[in-house]
Design a protein that fits this description.
2 strands; 65 residues; single chain; binds zinc ion; two-stranded antiparallel sheet; 49% helix
């Protein structure tokens, strides 16, 4: 049994709801950790990763830090 849970996003500091459905999804996937980011930040991160992935030469990699 899962219940909606309020978590605080690590990136933007806002509270977000980790829904029962998402918790079930995590359990099915075998994820051990709770999400640390809200959906918006997760998607923003995914978009960034996608951009880096598209041009993954050494220069871009070195500039990321
Ligand atoms: Zn966030």
């Amino acid at each position: 049994m899962y219940q909606d849970k309020v978590l605080v996003c690590k990136d933007c500091g806002k509270e977000f709801v980790w829904t029962a459905g998402e918790q079930q999804f995590y359990a099915e996937k075998g994820f051990q950790n709770e999400p640390v980011r809200c959906k918006e930040c997760r998607e923003a991160k995914k978009r960034r990763n996608h951009q880096y992935g598209a041009r993954r030469d050494k220069k871009a990699f070195g500039m990321s830090r």
